Amino acid sequence: MPGSGEHDRRATHGPPAAADFDALYDARYGDVVAMVYALVGDLAEAQDLAQEAFCRAWQRWGDVSRYDDPLAWIRRVAANLATSRWRRGRVARAHWGRERTADVPPLDPDHVALVAALRRLPADQRRAVVLHHLIDLPVADVAREMDAAVGTVKSWLHRGRAALATELAKSTEEVTYRD
Question: Are 146 and 138 in contact (CB under 8 A)?
Answer without folding.
Answer: no
